[in-house]
């Protein structure tokens, strides 16, 4: 039995001055670094898109960021171009301690499918491999922190709960995009899935 800290997408593009900035996204970094010592395993995830990704508004003729389109797997919010593979924006924030991470999961590389969750792409069936890794390492409990609370953190937490992990989200070490009520809706869905929501 062990526990893992899943640090979701603490990348330059999600921090102030990034391409898809999350308000106060950088304020969570020091507490996350400090929390790493409390867990057996630290996992980092990294949003990692090809330049022409179908979640980018720029991939369509008449769309703008935050419009919604229908993809084969359901509704998809369109985003500004962000976390392009190899770009500075896709790098972890320079203050994030990445040395304690045993594994880094990259997601969103398929140009046709977005991937908010650290476990499955948005088609809900294509695995990232994280579940296999955590199972092999006998992880039973996961705590999620990072960016953004209402997208990648929430999708990861709900998948983790459905996969049978005991799941905690630390809101004090996460920040939200909160577009059109998305934060409240995500907290509601996480609670219904059995995720423990904590504030510190
Ligand atoms: C994320 C939107 C698009 C996230 C990633 O990390 O929450 N949000 N790509
Ligand atoms: Zn993305």
Which helices and strands occur, and which strands form pairs?
Blueprint: E1 2-8, H1 29-35, E2 41-47, E3 68-71, E4 74-77, E5 101-107, H2 130-136, E6 139-147, H3 149-162, E7 166-175, H4 182-192, E8 196-198
Parallel strand pairs: 1-2, 1-6, 2-5, 6-7, 7-8
Antiparallel strand pairs: 3-4
This protein binds pyrazine-2-carboxylic acid and zinc ion.
Description:
The protein has a 6-stranded parallel beta sheet. It has a two-stranded antiparallel sheet with strand order 3-4. It has 200 residues and is an alpha/beta fold. Helices cover 20% and strands 26% of the residues. The protein is built from 4 helices and 8 strands. Bound molecules: pyrazine-2-carboxylic acid and zinc ion. Zinc ion is lined by residues 47, 49, 55, 82-83, 108.
Q: Which strand-content bin applies to the residues?
A: 25-35%
Work out the number of β strands: 8
Mean pLDDT: 97
Note the overall shape.
Answer: globular
Placed side by side, the strands forming the largest sheet appear as 5-2-1-6-7-8
């Amino acid at each position: 039995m062990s526990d893992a800290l899943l640090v979701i997408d603490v990348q330059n593009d999600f921090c102030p001055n990034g391409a898809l900035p999350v308000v106060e996204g950088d304020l969570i970094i020091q507490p996350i670094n400090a929390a790493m010592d409390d867990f057996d395993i630290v996992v980092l995830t990294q949003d990692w898109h090809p330049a022409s990704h179908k979640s980018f508004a720029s991939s369509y003729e008449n769309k703008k960021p935050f419009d919604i389109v229908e993809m084969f797997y359901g509704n998809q919010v369109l985003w500004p171009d962000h976390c392009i593979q190899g770009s500075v924006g896709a790098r972890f924030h320079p203050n994030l301690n990445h040395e304690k991470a045993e594994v880094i999961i990259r997601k969103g590389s398929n140009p046709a499918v977005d991937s908010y969750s650290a476990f499955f792409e948005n088609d809900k069936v294509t695995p990232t491999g994280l579940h296999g890794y955590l199972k092999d390492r006998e992880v039973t409990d996961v705590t999620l922190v990072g960016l953004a609370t209402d997208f990648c953190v929430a999708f990861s937490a709900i998948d983790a709960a459905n996969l049978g992990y005991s799941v905690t989200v630390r809101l004090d070490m996460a920040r939200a995009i909160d577009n059109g009520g998305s934060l409240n809706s995500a907290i509601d869905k996480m609670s219904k899935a059995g995720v423990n929501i904590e504030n510190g």
